[in-house]
Design goal:
The structure holds 3 protein chains of 3 kinds.
Chain A (H helix, E strand, L loop, with lengths): L5 E3 L4 E3 L5 E3 L2 E2 L1 E5 L11 E7 L2 E8 L7 H6 L7 H5 L6 H16 L5 H30 L4 H20 L19 H25 L3 H7 L7 H6 L5 H4 L7 H4 L20 H25 L18 H4 L3 H13 L6 E8 L4 E8 L5 E7 L1 H6 L2 H5 L7 H8 L3 H5 L1
Antiparallel strand pairs in A: 1-2, 3-4, 5-6, 6-7, 8-9, 9-10
Chain B lengths: L1 H6 L5 H6 L6 H11 L13 H4 L12 H10 L3 E7 L2 E6 L4 H10 L7 E9 L9 E9 L4 E9 L4 E3 L8 H12 L2 E3 L51
Parallel strand pairs in B: 2-5, 6-7
Antiparallel strand pairs in B: 1-2, 3-4, 4-5
Chain C lengths: L3 H4 L5 H15 L2 E3 L5 H10 L5 H5 L2 E3 L7 E5 L7 H10 L5 E5 H6 L20 E3 L6 H15 L4 H6 L1 H18 L10
Parallel strand pairs in C: 1-2, 1-3, 3-4, 4-5
The chains are: A alpha+beta, B alpha/beta, C alpha/beta.
Bound molecules: iron/sulfur cluster.
């Protein structure tokens, strides 16, 4: 590759003249990886500078999926924007919905009723499992455990079925609304979740039997991509990347939102901060998530409102819209004009499956946000890749990309 | 139906204080917040106490330790402190942008060691000058507090980079450069990030940038701008 | 058509071989593994055990464009990505087909912004459009089945040189066939 001055691929060039001479007839080599590469989880591109098989420097190039979601957010009314949050991180759409909705609710000063909060937690935790399934499948696939993706996607389909039954869509759910839900969870859906809770531990045990003590898996993950705790904080990492390095930071515990303070669960943390630890952390997270789901199903009030009672910011209930003139007008105005939240700015963060998902909304008092900033976890987490890759082997680069758990839609927005 | 009553802002100060007994300053804020709602256009929707009293951003007064620390160090170069929805925003002069962050990071008690987010806001439509606000969201793992710092700069003005303070600032600043055209002085690697290297059309998140960009697709027949008059109703 | 291409040009076998080849192509469409956005997740789901598109249609994904016949554009094509899509398409060897999966690839979908190409057909020719945001795997099935109907009709001349050349070729073949069978045929009146 390192023969001509410039390598041209039709989508950008990189300068090969920067390849330094290492002495003794050795020369650095610049290797392009992506954007169409099966293990970059989408359209990320990586420029690797190599000395033999050792990575000297890695330069992730992102933006191949930059779709301008923040700009769209500034041009849509608050009530309209939820569908785009689905498409930010498409492996865990309900979690994204939740992050955005909580930010708007904080801005408007409304709180969803208890039952709606439980349903939100249930859906969010289910989608956390679904996101981890995609992560585990693809991460293991990259490292060479080809069959993991087949196993995990079986379980994921069950969760997608639950979503489909609840809101009608499998992937881009758009299920949460400002103020709660407009449709209640059906008993049959709850049954499905119960069923999942029964079946899932056995399936997870299967995967762990396949991976956790597998010598190849250990060789490929142990001691690879170590992140020191100080560096993890310095790089602003969140989620399993931070917890794998032994720092106990989970927003569900540190700054509980919704009803997480009523739930009993633990935050798994790692010790070495390598790829294997992050794998263990996420696997344990799955178990804790099941615990959360169990408690939610037990604690959830069986009856009660699922939509906040607020005349300004919340869409009037369908039942009333058909019966009272006032609610019909309100519904009309809400749909046509949206609502005007107070002036101000809020930053609301939730624990996404990948880390801290923050929405920073600046409101100027009109029905559209003045600034809509989405702080996605994987964008910040991906930044640590050059740090991890330095001195690693070329073959490890796919393990390093996989362990950060990126989804390019959410990195590029 | 019990929780519906919960929603009414009728909680007495006593209830609220029991929510967090370790933090005595909460009492004070509890009273403050219940007497005067944090927002109100209409007087109908009052803020739910649980939203106001989370305490995730520290005390909502001038005595916020971060504000005190900054004031003692920099005096009147700390411009203002603002509260909204229990969040604390401190506006500082851009000349102390880096120093303020260093101070807050190294303060043994506060320890805002983590840069959650760094972004910018184009204030073109909200005020005359300065044009941009550079906004950083800090988080202290020790205190479990967040804090927002703001510095206002004009278009073309430089602001010092935070990369020497937080490694996380590297990409976040690059993104702000890409999207807003704000130049961070001393940034080691300031180039386009989300847009292509050879993007020539400016910086999309500025308020004067049209959402479809400048080279949008024009449907044939619409080149003149306005839609052509439809006279023949067979075309409808 | 490779080796057979020029040897059997003027032979009675041409149509049959074409058909056999097309049948083989149709039943083993190897597609380029190339996910762009959310739709890619559905595309992956379509491949996995529950929907099992790969085994049912003899499809297999290849990471290299040189080995692929089919490109499923699953997701948003941004202006930064468009040249790459074009490059990949150019690298695929003939014959090749394109399925545009999802609203984004069809017309830009919900992203009418500065960064997004409003439809992948501005960059590469598309054979089948699958609507949906994202299309469910069943919809992708239907798209693939439609494509199979198209593949079986594949005609090299038609594809490369257009309708007129194809008609002329067909006419030529007809006359040649007749001659080979010892039955000279008159040129058809057009
Ligand atoms: S069509 Fe919808 S689901 Fe598919 S890539 Fe576009 S936004 Fe995502």
């Amino acid at each position: 590759m390192a023969t001509t001055e410039q390598q041209t691929t039709g989508f950008g060039t990189w300068d090969v003249s920067e390849e330094r001479d290492l002495g003794g007839g050795q020369r650095e080599m610049v290797l392009n990886m992506g954007p169409q590469h099966p293990s970059t989880h989408g359209v990320m591109r990586l420029l690797l500078t190599l000395d033999g098989e050792t990575i000297i420097h890695a330069d992730p190039i992102i933006g191949y999926l930059h779709r301008g979601i923040e700009k769209i957010g500034e041009n849509k009314r608050y009530s309209q924007f939820t569908p785009w949050t689905d498409r930010t991180d498409y492996t865990a759409a309900p979690l994204n919905n939740l992050g955005y909705i909580l930010a708007v609710e904080k801005l408007c000063g409304i709180v969803a009723p208890e039952r709606a909060q439980y349903i939100r937690v249930i859906m969010a935790e289910l989608s956390r499992i679904a996101a981890h399934m995609v992560w585990l499948g693809t991460h293991a696939l990259d490292i060479g455990a080809l069959s993991m993706a087949l196993f995990t996607f079986i379980e994921r389909e069950k969760i997608l079925d639950i979503f489909e039954e609840f809101c009608g869509a499998r992937l881009t759910t758009n299920m949460m609304e400002i103020g709660g839900f407009s449709r209640d969870i059906k008993p049959s859906t709850i049954e499905k979740i119960e069923q999942l809770l029964k079946e899932f531990p056995a399936a997870q045990q299967d995967w762990e039997d396949l991976l956790s003590e597998n010598p190849i898996w250990l060789a490929r993950t142990r001691g690879v991509g170590v992140i020191e705790p100080e560096a993890a904080i310095d790089y602003g990492l969140t989620g399993a990347c931070l917890r794998g390095s032994g720092i106990n930071y989970d927003i569900r515990k540190a700054q509980p939102y919704l009803i997480y303070d009523r739930l009993d669960f633990e935050v798994p943390i790692g010790t070495n901060g390598d790829v294997y630890d992050r794998y263990l952390v996420r696997m344990e997270e799955l178990r804790q998530t099941l615990r959360i789901l169990r408690q939610c199903l037990d604690q959830m009030p069986t009856d009660g409102p699922i939509m906040a009672n607020d005349s300004n910011y919340v869409i009037p209930p369908h039942h009333n819209v058909l019966r009272t003139a006032e609610d019909m007008q309100r519904h009309f105005v809400w749909v046509i004009k949206g609502f005007n939240p107070p002036k101000g700015e809020v930053y609301s963060a939730i624990e996404h499956s990948k880390g801290e998902l923050g929405h920073y909304i600046v409101s100027d008092g009109t029905s559209m946000p003045y600034r809509m900033r989405i702080r996605t976890p994987d964008f910040v987490n991906l930044q640590v890749l050059p740090y991890m890759a330095e001195g690693a082997m070329l073959a490890d680069s796919v393990a390093l990309i996989g362990t950060i758990d990126i989804v390019l839609g959410s990195v590029d927005r | 139906m019990a929780d519906e009553q919960d929603l009414q802002p009728t909680a007495s100060p006593d209830d609220v204080v029991t929510a967090d007994e370790d933090n005595p300053w909460l009492t004070e804020i509890a009273e403050q917040q219940l007497t005067e709602p944090a927002h109100d256009k209409t007087g109908i929707a009052k803020v739910h106490p649980s939203l106001v009293l989370t305490g995730f951003w520290g005390p909502l007064s001038e005595d916020h330790p971060a504000h005190v620390a900054l004031m003692t160090a920099f005096g009147d170069r700390v411009k203002e402190i603002a509260f909204f929805r229990d969040e604390v925003t401190i506006r500082v002069d851009p000349s102390i942008w880096v120093d303020a962050h260093v101070l807050l990071r190294d303060d043994a008690d506060l320890a805002y060691r983590m840069l959650s987010d760094l972004t910018a806001v184009d204030m073109l439509k909200l005020r005359a000058a300065p044009r941009f606000d550079v906004v950083s969201q800090l988080y202290s793992i020790k205190k479990r507090w967040r804090l927002r710092l703001k510095g206002g700069i004009e278009d073309g003005e430089l602001i010092e980079t935070l990369t020497s303070v937080y490694a996380a600032a590297g990409w976040l600043e690059r993104e702000a450069f890409d999207m807003f055209g704000i130049t961070f002085e001393g940034h080691p690697d300031l180039r386009r990030m989300l847009l292509a290297d050879d993007w020539e059309e400016g910086h999309p998140l500025r308020k004067d940038y049209p959402i479809r960009g400048y080279s949008q697709y024009v449907e044939p027949g619409f080149e003149g701008g306005a839609a052509p008059r439809v006279k023949d109703n067979r075309r409808l | 058509m490779g080796v057979m291409e020029n040897r059997f040009e003027e032979n009675v076998l041409t149509t049959s071989v074409d058909w056999v080849f097309n049948w083989a192509r149709r039943s083993s469409l190897w597609w380029l593994q190339f996910g762009l956005a959310c739709c890619a997740i559905e595309m992956i789901a379509a491949m996995q055990p529950r929907f099992d598109m790969g085994e049912r249609f003899g499809m297999l994904f290849r990471a290299s464009p040189r080995q692929a016949d089919l490109m499923i554009v699953a997701g948003t094509v941004t202006r930064k990505m468009a040249p790459v899509v074009r490059t990949l398409y150019d690298q695929m060897s003939e014959p090749k087909w394109v399925i545009s999966m999802g609203s984004c690839a069809n017309i830009g979908g919900p992203f009418d912004t500065y960064a997004v190409v409003q439809g992948v057909d501005q960059v590469i020719p598309v054979d089948v459009y699958v609507p949906g945001c994202p299309p469910v795997p069943e919809a992708l099935y239907y798209g693939v089945l439609e494509l199979q109907n198209k593949v079986i009709k594949y005609d090299r001349v038609l594809r490369k040189e257009g309708q007129e050349a194809a008609d002329a070729q067909r006419e030529e073949d007809r006359i040649a066939t007749g001659e080979a069978m010892g039955r000279p045929v008159a040129a058809a009146a057009r």
